[in-house]
Amino acid sequence: MLGAGPALADPTDGRRSVGNRRPLPGWVRRLAGPALLFAVWLLVTEAGLVGERTLASPGEVIGAARELASSGELVDNLSVSLVRVAWGLLFGVAIGLVLAVVAGFFRLGEDLVDSSMNFLRTVPVIALLPLIIVWIGIGESAKIFLIAVGVIFPIYMNTFAAIRGVDLKLVEAGRSFGLGRLGLIRRVIVPGAVPGFLVGLRWSLGVAWLLLVFAEQVNAESGIGHLLNSAQAWNRTDIMILCLIIYGILGLLCDGIVRVLERTLLSWRRSFTGT
């Protein structure tokens, strides 16, 4: 046809010209980092760059895992630690979320809660351990309480900031469409605050596992932290490395859970995913 301009190229042609290779799934790419760490670990131990007493080899760690699994110690201690973290997260997330809602939705709540939370969050949670022992004792309640206290602050800070960070233009647009107070909260503020809450949840999961190690240092007769301390007393670096790997795997699993929640709850939001 005369006068026709140059044909527009199909934006997918450039991708097809590279080849028919399919991109690797995201979970495979995310495992590349830990796999690289494992390769470095294997290389260092097999090359004899460090002694066996300093760093156990992957084969020795696998052997320790089989030993503990066959005796039932690994499953028993892991289940105890999971229960402690679950209860600490349950109480910490619930309290932090309630405080964030009170401070975020109400000006009086902000005056009463936010200043107190900003004062308390600068106090190291580990420094509270002696007081927790005095208040509650050295039983299971103290361990759960320590985890819950550490979880509260990331949940509160991120959720409160997300609530107050909702664009005012969206709130005004909701009012112009006839939304009342409850409608604005349900349709505008809550969806806008969910991303911040999920960021706080991700931080809280990491804090929970970190505090679990300290909690299980105090009169603990079970748990991964107890197993780690016992291995130190026995000079079993293979068990110590195994416990650290378990913490790392649990951290990856928790991060994966949060990512699934993000894809489910934030399916409406398009954001930058990197180049």
Structure report:
With 275 residues, the protein is mostly helical. The chain has one domain: Orthogonal Bundle (MetI-like fold). The protein has twelve helices and no strands. It has helices spanning 13-18, 26-30, 32-46, 58-71, 73-105, 107-120, 129-136, 140-164, 168-176, 181-215, 224-234, 237-265. Helix 5 (73-105) packs across helix 6. The longest helix has 35 residues, at 181-215. Pfam families: BPD_transp_1. This is ABC transporter permease. Residues 74-258 form the ABC transmembrane type-1 domain. Keywords: Cell membrane, Membrane, Transmembrane, Transmembrane helix, Transport. The chain crosses the membrane at residues 85-106, 118-138, 144-163, 184-205, 239-261.
Percent helix, as a range, is over 70%
Question: What is the level-2 CATH architecture name?
Answer: Orthogonal Bundle
Question: How many structural domains?
Answer: 1
User: Low-confidence parts lasting 5 or more residues at pLDDT below 50?
Assistant: 1-18
Q: State the end-to-end CA separation.
A: 39 Å
Number of helices: 12
Draw up the topology in text.
Blueprint: H1 13-18, H2 26-30, H3 32-46, H4 58-71, H5 73-105, H6 107-120, H7 129-136, H8 140-164, H9 168-176, H10 181-215, H11 224-234, H12 237-265
